[in-house]
Specification:
The protein has 320 residues and is of the alpha+beta class. The chain contains nine helices and 14 strands. The chain binds biotin.
């Protein structure tokens, strides 16, 4: 009933007479007003004008699952959406759901995280209602050695979606940083459950600073709204999340149908790392070299000053 009512209000040309709505939804007048009151409590601006009817004037800046699902039009990613106002980390919830046989493509999204995490045990700050913090459950048919490709795939999807939605130019730092004007605006975290030589579950976590003010972020980080500059502009987080989910699906289908080649080629076109002189910190090792390419499994290939080509599957990259 809530979904249908919202759908009707969203697509109405003008005011909708309550009796027309009651008829369309097959509910009593009392039930309709109760539902309207519920939507107003969720933050929807719904006006009722005598003799004219009801009209939705504003929708709240919330990632409600019925908002994200409306007009999403994906086949897999986001068919199930779990929405949490506050959570420790969407990664844990997604992994737990995956363990309970949640469908591939299930999304867990939160308005804030109290223990959001990044790679290498780092913290991911998640100011409430400002950014996108979500995890997607995948069950990819790829060997564990190639899971780095999933991180790159998610990076490509986020970069494509941000560019489509905001026009902001985005690049990617290997393996998982989403950069705007050289500053970190987002990151991807991939966590796996694997058995022997097969990946059972991959949970892809995405954190993106959308409408976050820079003073709420760590030093050297940025947000999409900040990059847009000018008078403060709020980016539509629902539309952006939808676009990211569509882009994840597009690229995931590409990976399944054509192999990793196409996705890696797109990644190369967005990479800030390739061609750059970098310092790679992997465990105790620190290597200064020029990043030359990525391998078929998503590993980073660098050329050391000695001419030797080395490959890294994990590590921290500093652009020098
Ligand atoms: C990184 O840059 O190191 C990766 C950051 C990933 C953050 C996201 S926010 C949603 C999901 N939940 C988490 O705890 N982490 C990921």
């Amino acid at each position: 009933m809530q979904d249908k009512l919202l759908e009707s209000l969203r697509h109405a040309q003008g005011y909708l007479p309550p009796e027309q709505l009651c008829q369309r939804l097959g509910v009593s007048r009392q039930a309709l007003w109760q539902e309207i009151a519920g939507l107003r409590r969720l933050g929807y601006g719904i006006v009722a004008v005598p003799h004219l009817g009801l009209r939705m004037e504003s929708a709240p800046d919330r990632l409600y699952p019925f908002e994200v699902a409306s007009g999403l039009h994906t086949r897999l990613i986001g068919k199930q959406i779990h929405y949490l106002k506050t959570v420790a980390s969407t990664m844990d919830v997604a992994m737990e759901l995956a363990g309970k046989a949640a469908a591939e493509g299930t999304v867990v999204v939160a308005e804030t995280q109290t223990r959001g995490r990044g790679r290498l045990g780092r913290q991911w700050l998640s100011p409430r209602y400002r950014g996108l913090y979500f995890s997607v459950i995948l069950r990819p048919d790829i060997p564990p050695t190639h899971t780095a490709v999933l991180t790159l795939l998610a990076g490509v999807a986020v970069a494509e979606a941000v560019a489509r939605c905001s026009g902001v130019d985005v690049s990617i730092k290997w393996p998982n940083d989403i950069l705007i004007a050289g500053r970190k605006a987002g990151g991807i975290l991939t966590e796996l459950r694997q058995e022997l030589d097969a990946v059972q579950v991959a949970v892809i976590g995405v954190g993106l600073n959308v409408n976050t003010a820079v003073h709420e972020l760590p030093a050297h980080a940025t947000s999409i709204a900040h990059a847009l500059g000018g008078p403060p502009r709020r980016v539509d987080r629902v539309a952006l999340l939808q676009e990211i989910l569509r882009a994840v699906e597009e690229n995931y289908v590409l990976l399944q149908k054509k192999g990793a080649g196409c996705v890696l080629e797109k990644w190369r076109g967005m990479a800030a790392t390739l061609g750059a002189r970098v310092k790679v910190a992997a465990g105790r090792e620190h290597v200064e070299a020029v990043a030359v390419d990525i391998d078929a499994d998503g590993g980073l290939l660098v050329r050391c000053d000695s001419g030797e080509i080395r490959k890294f599957m994990a590590g921290d990259v500093l652009h020098l």
